[in-house]
Specification:
The complex is a heterodimer of chains A (114) and B (115). Chain A is mostly beta strands and 114 residues long. Chain A is 0% helix and 56% strand. In chain A, the strands form two sheets. In chain A, strands 2, 4, 5, 6, 9, 10 and 11 form a seven-stranded mixed beta sheet that branches. In chain A, strands 1-3-8-7 form a four-stranded antiparallel beta sheet, with no helix packed on it. Chain B is mainly beta. Chain B is built from no helices and twelve strands. In chain B, strands 2, 5, 6, 10, 11 and 12 form a six-stranded mixed beta sheet that branches. A four-stranded antiparallel beta sheet of chain B has the order 3-9-8-7, with no helix packed on it. Chain B has a two-stranded antiparallel sheet with strand order 1-4. Chain B is globular, with a radius of gyration of 14 Å. The chains are: A mainly beta (114), B mainly beta (115). At the A-B interface, strand 5, strand 9 and strand 10 of A face strand 5, strand 6 and strand 11 of B.
Chain lengths: 114, 115
């Protein structure tokens, strides 16, 4: 899992807090993704960045704000979250070439909103 | 619309027996198909993928999957299960034609290999 790293691994926050999740990929990829994983549900794609440009926002509430300063780093800024936002947040990266390329995942950040 | 169905939430198999984890998909046009595995407190690890060519795809840790276009299936198989194979398995699909690199995942199947 050294290819894609995520920090922190665990996060507990209140509904009025502001926090950020960080993702870094060491694979030389050009596309990065945020997913939300909740129990008994399919992984939900949240955001996609290709070459630092956001190409997908899957109707995600504005309390989640992504940032991609370069092709290696991706952030997810969190503010005024709700308890139902508690989940595992996974970051992934891929080469960015549209030919069935594989997405590689980080270990995730386990988020608990109180 | 693109979607994946994994009809079994849980599969139990005895160690040394063959295992199958089922996946069916719906996609416009031709599919790219993937299998991932997730161990506790870990992210998803890539196992194998079908892009084109031979319908039988071999992947990591002795796993293989067979693409069946007529049945729109991509079942994951292994001839002899190990206790260490116990994990959560996800099937995913994307359309060749859309040009987008978004994957659509199933809900996952928990595999338990019994010693």
């Amino acid at each position: 899992e050294t290819g894609v790293t995520q920090t922190p691994r665990h996060l507990v926050m209140g509904m009025t807090n502001k926090k950020s999740l960080k993702c870094e990929q060491h694979l030389g990829h050009n596309a990065m993704y945020w997913y939300k994983q909740s129990a008994k549900k399919p992984l939900e794609l949240m955001f996609v960045y290709n070459f630092k440009e956001q190409t997908e926002n899957n109707s995600v509430p504005s309390r989640f704000s992504p940032e991609c300063p370069n092709s290696s780093h991706l952030f997810l800024h969190l503010h005024t979250l709700q308890p139902e936002d508690s989940a595992l947040y996974l970051c992934a990266s891929s080469s960015g070439m549209p030919s069935g390329e594989t997405q590689y995942f980080g270990p995730g950040t386990r988020l608990l909103v109180l | 619309a693109q979607s994946v169905a994994q009809p079994e939430d849980q599969v139990n198999v005895a160690e040394g027996n063959p295992l199958t984890v089922k996946c069916t998909y719906s996609v416009s046009g031709n599919p790219y198909l993937f299998w991932y595995v997730q161990y506790p407190n870990r992210g998803l690890q890539f196992l194998l993928k079908y892009i084109t060519g031979d319908n039988l795809v071999k992947g990591s840790y002795g796993f293989e999957a067979e693409f069946n276009k007529s049945q729109t299936s991509f079942h994951l198989k292994k001839p002899s299960a190990l206790v260490s194979d116990s994990a959560l398995y996800f099937c995913a699909v994307r359309s060749v034609q859309t040009g987008a690199n978004n994957l659509f995942f199933g809900t996952g199947t928990r595999l338990t290999v019994i010693p």
